[in-house]
Design brief:
726 residues; alpha+beta; 5-stranded antiparallel beta sheet; elongated
């Protein structure tokens, strides 16, 4: 045909990348899989000399697919803007077999099929293999000049959530020394590491840097499962001595050093963002430091109660001191108490029920001024409407068949505290899961308010020995909101039991969870947190686990230098005068990882009011409200279902209880229910008798996640409260 051949500049070679694999099986099975199975293939296979199934005395490279043809080695894959890399790559399989021990988990956590959920040992590659690989790779690069250094990659780089080959022992740096593939300059990496130790790049920036280098990663701003997978793959390639899947300054510095060497335009974009983040961080600090003449303190109050204490090194030096409550000026010229450094005055006449705002302004610097507002203490009903609501509740709840102890607090008044049916008033309450909220969570609020613990710090910052299997990725907040990836204790024990059954063919009957607990009395729970595998990546799934509480308790002990139970009782319960609250554990009972709180209703009322008061109760200021403590109170564990151990959103409860507002918080266990509604300004506490098995058996049986007795009592109480509001 009359064809006029004119060469277009809009073209490139078909082969763009060279992908390296390990087979994970011996030569004989590799040949069947790659040559005869019809399922997978590669362009080349390099055997291992010590492989008993290899029939020859000297190593030879075996070509299975012509380079002009498409081999099936990459599968679902992505690199540097390209997908389905079988179309544009050459694949080399290398015989190398990792040895792994599968741990009892539900699913892989991160790092692919040979990732953190398996205890794997990766053997070194045969040096004769590597010599053949180097010579073959050099020839391939000569034939296909479009394969740039950053496109000589491993299967784990292009499929980080599925694959780990060629593994952490593959000699990438040795290949780089022979002109094959990419590597970073140590001096450049050190430069970025020094820079990042001063101001660390955000997770967003590291995600973007990895994406620019070639990885398939989305910028989410959280250390999610995809990010851990990519970090695991990146470290196997460039930091094989520290493969953790964890984000640290060395990893961030390495990817930035690679970008400077191979992708400078993308690096400039990243550095521009990095500089802006740094300026914003320090700019915000400067702004906060500049506003020294005005202080604003929101606080929870109740009509008829309230005192303010101001303390300053030289109180008389403050010029034009102006104090307002809810916009109304305070007359503090006749204080209750006053000395050179402090002043106390009453604000009872200016305080509203619920949220209030205290503002202090002066022409002087207020940086050294400390403020304390007394929190409302619980009192008995004082007005006719409150007594009327008490009588209506008592009459309405007495028509129910259940046996329970009930309390309602509205504002600062204990409207009703009464037992119904067979229940005893002020009987012993075993809080079970709620123990965590009123002990571990409360201790965390206190220590975070004092800045002794920070939510965004890693757990290993406080427990240096807490490392391996992605533990350095776990921040304090992941434990607080139960998004760390730890399994339920029951799920873990059942997995261990299933593993035993798999290894003992003669065992015919599986055990119940209670029987497993009986057999598991020798479990060292404190040691278990260092080897129990994560079932999920961080932020991947919200699952209530006592392992989270156990780690937090160890952090609290390390920070306070005292046993957790002692800290809670002496620093929290004793100042509040809670004489009926203590930790109770059965002798030699190791069936659960954490001790449980035993208390009485009157103590629970005070603890619930403490949270409403933002940390104060009377003159006791147990924790300081802050951005951290507000975050904690809104993200802590409230509603949980015993049967499913899943968290149900408050919306589910509101479907059954339309009287609740969006400001509702609910916590429940088998026999106890605590509800706080900020908008209605009420606290409801219901305790069912332990011997009433109906409440235990049916928990989670309806869409609200409540038992039928819980739902009936709560519905009746809310109807009466709502009618009284109208």
């Amino acid at each position: 045909m009359p064809i006029d051949k004119q060469i277009s500049v809009g073209q490139n070679a078909r082969i763009q990348s060279l992908i390296l694999h390990f087979t994970a099986i011996d030569y004989q099975r590799s040949m069947w899989a790659l040559k005869d199975s019809g399922g997978v293939s590669a362009h080349y296979l390099i055997p291992e000399k010590a492989d008993p199934s290899y029939p020859k005395t000297s190593l030879e490279i075996i070509q299975l697919v012509d380079e002009s043809q498409r081999a099936w080695h990459a599968g679902t894959s992505y690199w540097d803007g390209r997908r389905n890399l079988n179309d544009t790559s050459i694949g080399i399989e290398i015989v190398n077999i990792p040895k792994c021990h599968h741990q009892p988990v539900v699913k892989a956590t991160h790092g692919g099929e040979y990732g953190a959920h398996k205890d794997c040992r990766f053997p070194d590659f045969d040096q004769e293999q590597i010599s053949l690989l180097i010579e073959l790779s050099k020839q391939i690069l000569q034939r296909h000049p479009d394969i740039e250094p950053t496109r000589v990659i491993g299967h784990s780089d292009i499929s980080p959530s599925r694959k780990n080959d060629p593994g952490p022992n593959f000699p990438w740096y040795q290949l780089y020394q022979h002109g094959i593939g990419a590597w970073y300059d140590a001096q450049t990496q050190a430069k970025y590491q020094h820079m990042f130790e001063t101001f660390s790049p955000s997770i967003n920036l590291v995600q973007k840097a990895l994406y620019y280098y070639g990885y398939n990663i989305k910028e989410t701003g959280i250390l999610d499962s995809q990010t851990q997978d990519v970090l695991f793959a990146f470290q196997m390639h460039f930091l094989p001595w520290d493969v953790t899947g964890e984000l640290n300054t060395e990893t961030a510095a390495t990817v930035y050093a690679l970008l400077e060497k191979y992708k400078e335009p993308q690096l400039k974009v990243l550095m521009s963002r990095y500089n802006r983040e740094e300026e914003q961080q320090f700019g915000l600090s400067s702004l906060l430091e500049a506003n020294k003449n005005r202080l604003v303190k929101p606080f929870y109050g109740a009509k008829g109660q309230g005192e303010v204490t101001l303390i300053h090194p030289n109180l008389s030096s403050l010029i034009d001191l102006d104090i307002t409550i809810n916009g109304v000026s305070v007359d503090f010229k006749q204080p209750v108490k006053m000395n050179a450094t402090g002043i106390k005055f009453g604000i009872a006449s200016l305080v509203n029920n619920g949220n209030n705002v205290l503002e202090i302004a002066s022409k002087s610097d207020l940086s050294n001024l400390s403020i304390n507002v007394t929190g409302p203490e619980l009192k008995q009903p004082t007005v006719w409407l409150e007594r009327k609501l008490r009588n209506e509740l008592a009459n309405g709840l007495s028509t129910l068949e259940q046996s329970f102890e009930f309390s309602l607090v509205k504002h600062d008044k204990v409207i009703l505290h009464q037992s119904f049916g067979r229940a005893a008033k002020n009987g012993e309450l075993h809080l079970n899961q709620l123990s965590s909220f009123f002990t571990t969570q409360l201790a965390m609020v206190k220590l975070i308010g004092e800045q002794r613990i920070k939510l965004d710090n890693s757990v290993s910052y406080y427990l240096p020995e807490y490392k391996g299997d992605g533990r350095a990725n776990r921040l304090i907040k992941h434990l607080v909101n139960h998004k760390s990836g730890y399994p339920r204790v029951d799920d873990y024990l059942q997995a261990v039991q299933q593993s035993r059954e798999d290894n003992e063919a003669d065992q015919a009957l599986s055990l119940t969870v209670d029987e497993i607990h009986q057999q598991s009395l020798d479990i060292d729970w404190q040691s278990a947190i260092y080897h129990v595998p994560f079932y999920y990546g961080v932020e991947q799934k919200l699952v209530y686990s006592e392992f989270n509480d156990l780690v937090l308790r160890l952090v609290i002990e390390r920070v306070t230098n005292m046993p957790f139970e002692q800290f809670v009782e002496t620093q929290l319960f004793l100042p509040l005068g809670l004489n009926h609250s203590a930790f109770r554990t059965e002798p030699n009972d190791k069936s659960r990882p954490t001790s449980q709180l035993t208390t009485r209703m009157e103590d629970v009322l005070v603890l619930t009011q403490l949270f409403k008061n933002n940390g104060s109760y009377g003159n006791q200021q147990l924790f300081k409200p802050s951005a951290y403590t507000r975050w904690l109170q809104h993200n802590s564990v409230w509603l949980l279902s015993k049967e499913l151990s899943q968290f149900k959103p408050i919306l589910d409860v509101q479907t059954c209880h339309p009287y609740l507002t969006q400001s509702s918080h609910v916590a429940l266990s088998e026999n106890n229910l605590v509800l706080v509604d900020d908008k209605l300004d009420i606290s409801v506490i219901i305790h069912f008798q332990t011997e009433d098995k109906e409440g235990v058996d049916e928990l989670g049986s309806n869409p609200c996640g409540l038992s039928e007795p819980q739902q009936q009592v709560l519905t009746k109480a809310l109807q009466i409260i709502y009618q009284a509001q109208r």
